[in-house]
Structure formats: C-alpha cells, structure tokens
Design a protein that fits this description.
heterodimer, A: mainly alpha, B: about 325 residues, mainly alpha, 13 helices
C-alpha cells in the first residue's frame, strides 16, 4: 500500500506541475501583451508600464514561472501597482475587482461547495438507487420508466432544466425564492431555500446518467458466477444483492463520481450562470468576460487541482475497496 | 478522414457471392445495415436527424420561402415598455411561427434555422477533426508501443485531468489576445475556428484511447504479421491493414461525439464565450431568454426543446448504431 501511495503521489505532483506550466504559458506566453489583457479598462499606459516592470515580464519565461510558483508557496511582493505584499497562496492581483485574487476566491469557494456537496449526495442516492432497482426489476414497467428517464435526462441541457425549474417553482408556483446564497452558519433555512433549485437541476441531470451506469453495472455483476454461487449456497436474495453484487457493481461508479464531483467543485459554471449565484464558476465567467487574466488563471488552477486531487482520492478509495488495484 | 470509403469497401468486396439454395452471403456492413433498418428507434431518430440536417443545409432557401431574414427586426410587434412581444406565446402568428424575440424583435423561427446551421457545422467539423487526430494517434500508439505509446498515453491521461469547461472558457481570451488587440472586434469565423480547435484539443484523447485498445488486440493477429512479412511499410500496415478493421468503433464514437459537441458549443455560447449574439445560435439565444423568463416564458422553450430533440436524436441513433454494429453487446 505504501508503494502504491508513493507512486500515485509522484504522478499527481507531475500532473499538477504540467497543469501549472500549461496554464502559465496559456496566460503569459500566448497573448501578445499579457498586461494589456490583465487590465483592459482602467489602466493608463504609465500604470501598465509599471506593472510590466514589477511583474518582471521582460525576464525570461522560466524566471517568470518560478516567481509565480514562489508566490503560491511562500508569497511574493507584487509591487505598489498591484496592492503590495501578497501573502502565501498568492495568485496575483485582480485589477477588475481591485483586490488580491485569493480574497475573491475565499469569498466564492463556500458558495460552490454549498451547491456541489448536497447536489452530489442527492444525485448519487437517486441515480444509484434507481439504477439498482431497475436492474433488479429488469423488464418491468419501473425499469422501462427508469430507462426513459435516463435517456431524456442525458440529453437535457443544464441551463434548460434550470430555466424550467426557475419558471415553475419561482415564477409560477412561487414556492421558492429567487436563487441566492446565504451562509449556512447565518441562516440554514435560507441557505437551503436559496440553493434548492440548483441542487435539483444538477441532481436531475447527473442522476439520469448515474442511473444508466448503475443499471448496466448491476446487470453485468448479476450475471457473474459468484452471484449465482452465493444464491446457490442458499443466501437470502437481500444479502446477495445488497452485499455481494452491490459492492462489485458500485466500484466503477466510485471512480466516475469522484471525477464528476472534482470537476463540479472547480466551478458549476452553467448552474451558477443560470441561477445567478456568484460561485467559483460564475466568477470565472465574469473574469473571462471582463478580461481579468490573473483571476482566470487562478480559477483554472483551482479547478485543475480539484480534479487531480479527486482523481487521487478515488484511486485510494479504489485500492481500499478492490485489493487487485494495488498489485498491478 | 477517409471514413466513408472504408465503410463501403467490405460491402462491395463480398457482394458478388454466388447465391445458392437460398443462402445469401452478407458482409458485416450489410448485416449491420439490415439490423439498423429493422430497429424502430434507429429509423425514427435517423429520420429526425436527416430532416434537421436538411433544414440546416437549406437555411437560405427556407429564408426565401419564409420571407423573413435572421437579422430583420419587427420592433412594432413589441410593447412600448419592456419590449415584450404582443400576442400569445411570445407573439406566435402566421407570419412568425415561433414568435419574436423580446428586446430586439427578431423572428425566432428563422434564427433557429440558422442556429441549427451554426450548431451542426461546429459539431460535425469538431467531430471530424477529433476523429482524424484521435484515430491517427491511437493507431500509432497501439501499433508502435514503447515510448511513443507511453508519451501519447500520458498526454491522454493529462488531458483527462483538465476540467474541460473551465479550460475552454479560459483559453478563449488569451487566444483572442494573441491575434487581436484588447479592444478589437473579434470576427465570428475566428471564434468558430477557436471553438473547433478547443473541442479537437480536448476530444481526441477518448477516441485515441479506444482505438489504441483495439489496435493492441489486433496487432498480433496473423494478417498483420503476414503484411509485415511481405515487406509492407508502416503506413500500409496502419492505414490499409488495421484501419479497415476499426471502422465500427470509430463510427460509433464519432456518432456519439457529435451530440457532445452540440451540447458543448451551446454551453460555451450560453456562457457568452463561444458564438456571440448577432450570429444566430441556440446557446446564445437561451442565455438571452433567461433574462426574459418572467415576462416572456415562451422564448426559452423553442431553442431549449429543439436542442434537446437534436441531442436526444443523436444519442439514440448512436446507441442504435452501436447495437447494430456489435450484436453481442445487448444493453
């Protein structure tokens, strides 16, 4: 297990390094003039020139990259044009918001977490439950309904579902307020009622996909010899399906779920834009529209870190559930 | 991509089999075609797709017959205050089948006909480019093995670690800044090209993985060895010997990639990153409609339902195609 852990850790660091290089090049080598892209509206030529000097944009690209990385791990001095000293996880300074990028991120990250975590619990329970049920009741009306649901859901668009939910529950029935974010610590009820539509939209689409996957996995597992053996041994149906089959069928789903949650944490861009909730994703969209390069780069890095870390966690979980993985 | 000749080839090669005692020889292609034709879902979704593609192709003709262009504005049909269409369901009438847009007063039907064009063109072009890159990379990696395989496999793993939507979102602006100044207008064709490039850059990896796996199981087979023994070059083995045996998985992954790109393009345009407003596009239309959800709820339905039908038809057809090409996989 230790060897497996070290091997995975090495590959994770390599991937993170590659991600940071790619995104650095994307923002500092690809544009003709990165500084003009950082401050498109409220900077005059003089201020731009000062930023160029203080960021060392005339230095070789390798040195610039090293300075950026140093900022993330130990902090750096960005100079007076960019708000001065920048503390340890320094991701630069946003001219559009006139604050350090990490300050903005600290504000919007809890929003995205509040959207993703309850939604993920919902879609896993719904999707896996429905898939398992329809596999066990194969060919019945319930199974056919579940297949229909997952086909429709998989072809639906998040923004369309979101718009429909908003139209029905907020504007027509007036059951829930216009989506918004309040901290769970301030008012848990308001927190839930402000985000419930976002959870529903995400859970609807993802549970459709998961129901389909879970059904296919379960059907495959049910046809395996060990299930027949367990049944032949005289074990109760409940034990066989609930323990033997479920455990084998659910492992591939763990992988996919981990990746999806990781990707969603990096910004539920469409959900946030549809419902107008200012999380990580909508911040990224605003940054792109406003040409706020440091902000865009930070969101890309964070999203990639989430995906890579989720991947890593999934691998560990997988190794814990299925011992064969550790050996290969 | 020379996909279509490869598909037709086996059919022609086995056609002149002598018919004796009622036994008819059929190639795998013919068998798949027969299975596909007997599948009701496949026929219905296939016909739907055909109609939608024809509508997209015939857009200028439809415009001439319909008598309204995608940029014509009918401001007199809007309310003075709030610019909401007069009449029922967003101003549906004999002249404007799907009503008119609030705010601008443009005709929704003709904009959707052109939007279908934008969407399908980008999706099909991306799927073609993706297939070409993915197939080449996959065949090369699978057949050569060694360090070539290691490098290509690492790149595919790496690309899977990147969050697609955020990356696609982020790369658009730096690419624009490469070729245009911060305040310059970016032409539509450039945005379309960048979108296709983004989809290709992210999409080729899954095809490459699939093809690589298939090639690894094929490369030790006798026909490849025979080709190698008779002195065939690398290109001949890869594209003349191996590729014809791969068209089934490639075709399936191609047909399932198209709806994914339709969705992706609409999502990016919805976010205001892909195609922007004066150009007709589903994603951009739905984004506009969100602001009018309360006052003109009919506006969101037409593009929303159309894109749903388009993606559903592609998904169903892709599934049916897989079943037809691989009868062993019973879902």
């Amino acid at each position: 297990m230790i060897r497996f852990l070290i091997k995975r850790l090495l590959s994770v660091s390599l991937t993170l390094f590659a991600v940071s290089v790619v995104s650095f090049l994307m923002f500092f080598a690809l544009p003709k003039d990165p500084v003009a892209g950082m401050c498109p509206k409220n900077c005059n030529a003089e201020r731009l020139e000062r930023v160029r000097q203080e960021l060392g944009l005339r230095d070789p690209k390798v040195e610039q990259y090293a300075a950026y990385m140093k900022g993330i791990f130990v902090g750096r001095d960005l100079g007076s044009a960019q708000g001065g000293k920048c503390e340890a996880p320094c991701l630069g300074y946003s001219y559009v918001n006139s604050e350090a990028v990490t300050d903005t991120l600290g504000r919007v990250l809890p929003v995205t977490l509040s959207i993703v975590i309850p939604a993920a619990i919902l879609w896993l329970l719904l999707g896996v439950g429905l898939g398992m049920l329809s596999a066990l009741r194969r060919g019945t009306l319930l199974d056919r309904l579940a297949i229909g649901f997952s086909l429709t859901g998989a072809s639906m668009q998040l923004y369309f579902v979101g718009a429909l939910l908003l139209l029905i529950f907020t504007y027509q029935l007036k059951l829930v307020p216009v989506p918004h974010y309040t901290s769970i610590l301030d008012n848990p009820l308001d927190w839930a009622s402000g985000l419930v539509l976002a959870w529903m939209a995400l859970a609807f689409l993802f549970s459709a996909i998961y129901a389909r996957l879970a059904r296919a996995q379960m059907l495959e597992t049910l046809s395996e010899d060990f299930v027949r053996t367990a049944r032949a041994k005289g074990l109760a149906k409940r034990t066989v399906y609930g323990r033997h089959a479920l455990r084998a069928a659910i492992t591939p789903l763990v992988t996919i779920a981990g990746l999806d949650v990781g990707a969603a944490l990096g910004g539920t861009v469409i959900t946030e834009t549809t419902f107008g909730i200012q999380g990580l994703g909508r911040t990224a969209v605003y940054a792109v529209r406003g040409g706020d390069l440091p902000m865009i780069m930070a969101t890309v890095l964070i999203a990639a870190v989430f995906v890579v870390v989720a991947n890593f966690v999934v691998d560990l979980l997988y190794a814990a559930i299925d011992p064969r993985v550790r050996l290969s | 991509m020379s996909l279509s000749p490869e598909i037709v080839e086996p059919v022609q090669a086995t056609d002149p089999v002598p018919v004796e005692r009622g036994v008819v020889g059929r190639s795998p292609g013919q068998l798949a075609w027969r299975r596909l034709r007997r599948d009701r879902t496949a026929v219905i979704s296939g016909c739907t797709l055909l109609v939608l593609v024809l509508v997209a192709l015939a857009a200028p003709l439809i415009e001439a017959l319909y008598g309204v262009g995608p940029h014509d504005e009918f401001k007199h049909l809007l309310t003075r205050r709030g610019s909401i269409p007069l009449g029922y369901a967003g101003g549906v009438s004999a002249d404007h089948w799907f009503g008119i847009e609030p705010g601008t007063g443009r005709d929704i039907f003709i904009r959707m006909v052109y939007g279908l064009r934008t969407s399908l063109f980008i999706a099909l072009a991306s799927a073609l480019v993706t297939a070409a890159i993915g197939v080449t990379a996959g065949i090369v990696a699978g057949y050569l093995g060694g360090w070539v395989d290691a490098v290509i496999s690492w790149i595919t793993d790496f690309a899977l670690a990147l969050p697609f939507l955020i990356f696609a979102l982020a790369v658009m602006r730096p690419v624009e800044l490469r070729f245009y100044g911060p305040r310059e207008e970016v032409p539509t064709w450039f945005r379309v090209a960048v979108l296709i490039a983004i989809f290709a850059a992210f999409g080729w990896t899954s095809t490459a993985r699939l093809v690589r796996g298939q090639v690894i199981s094929l490369r030790e087979r006798e026909f490849v060895e025979a080709a190698r023994a008779s002195g065939a070059g690398l290109g001949h083995i890869l594209f003349r010997q191996l590729l014809p045996n791969l068209w089934a998985p490639i075709l399936v992954s191609f047909s399932l990639a198209v709806p994914a790109y339709v969705t992706g393009e609409a999502a990016l345009s919805f976010l205001g990153i892909g195609i922007v407003d004066p150009t007709p596009d589903f994603g951009a239309m739905i984004f506009r409609s969100i602001a009018y959800l309360q006052t003109d709820p009919a506006y969101v339905f037409f593009p929303g339902v159309t894109i749903f039908a388009l993606v559903l038809a592609f998904n169903l057809f892709g599934d049916a195609l897989r079943d037809a090409l691989d009868p062993k996989s019973s879902r």
